Every structure is written in C-alpha cells, then in structure tokens.
Amino acid sequence: MRAKQLPFAVRAVSFMVSAVALTGCVDADLAQLEGTLADIRQSPGGQPPVMAVALPESADLSYLYSNERSPFLPPEEIAQGSADRSEGSLAPDRQRTPEPLERFSLQELRLVGTMRMGGRQVALIASPDGSVTSVKEGNYMGTDYGRIAQINAQEIRVTERVFTQPEGWQERQVSLVINENNE
C-alpha cells in the first residue's frame, strides 16, 4: 500500500513556515558580537594586579602560665584514674534496696509538712509524680544517696554523698525547708 501524499498546498505552507522560522534565527548584530570578541582576544592577558594590605605590627606576648597544666589536657589525677567509685569509707552501699524517693533529685522534691508521730518527728515529702511520702530520720532520698540526718519543725537536713574525681566520695549537707509561698 502506498503512503498517502500530502496535497501540494499543505506542503508549500509548511515550507514557508519553516523558512520564516529559520530566518528569525539570523541576527543582524552578529557582526557587532564578532567585533567585541576580537577586542577581548587582543587585550593583554596575564595575572590580575596584586593588592598588598599593610597589617599593623603586633607586639610579642608572654604567657604567664606556661609552666602550669594545659587547660586542654585532663589533670594528671584523672588521667591516672586516682579515685575509684567503689572504694572509700564514704562509698554508698549499693547492695541495699533503693527507697521510693531516691528516683528524684532533691531539687524536684518538696517538703510540705512535719509532724510528731509516736514520739518521733516525721516529714511529708511531695514528689513530682504527685504523691506525698512520709519519711523519718535514716530514710534515703534524692539521687545522690542522701540520708535524712535531722527533721525539725520547718526543715529536714539531708547528708548526700557525691563523687569527685580527685577526692573520691565526699559528704555534703543539704536542707529542705517548708516554703509557705510555694503551695
């Protein structure tokens, strides 16, 4: 079967459209572009000029602590591992069962009241989970192995055990006070 030929008029119109489209691609300013490129090619090449910036003179400084330990290196005691967490007379007993208030830091716990029960002073401690727990002297609270040393009418005193690298286990005294403004 022979392919159908387009009529002559359709072929002539498509030829004219193609010729007009190709004529639009010819730019009359190509001569000007060629002139600009020729000027650029003839200009002197090479390195761009060097700009020198004058820097102010600086004075020599002496470091007064050059004989001391570098602040960027660990102290020798830490590097040598002088203190051991499991040793020392103040090391906490890790075998005992933790008490409920040891899950919270002392900053999260709040003393809400004290009372005398059976001849002993008892304190009421509010924890962040919303519960109130009664404690007596000798109970533990806080994340730093704090043990209640004394309960007064307005405060309780807690002895915490904290570990520092050079000294090992140390005791510190902390107090929780009833704050009537912070209900």
Automatic annotation (TrEMBL):
One Pfam annotation reads PilP
Protein's recorded name: Pilus assembly protein PilP
Q: Which InterPro entries match?
A: PilP (IPR007446)
- The ranges of region (Disordered) come to 74-100
Lineage, broadest ranks: Bacteria, Pseudomonadati, Pseudomonadota, Gammaproteobacteria, Oceanospirillales
Q: Which UniProt keywords apply?
A: Signal
Question: Would I find Signal among this entry's keywords?
Answer: yes
Q: Which organism is it from?
A: Vreelandella neptunia
Specify the signal sequence span.
1-21
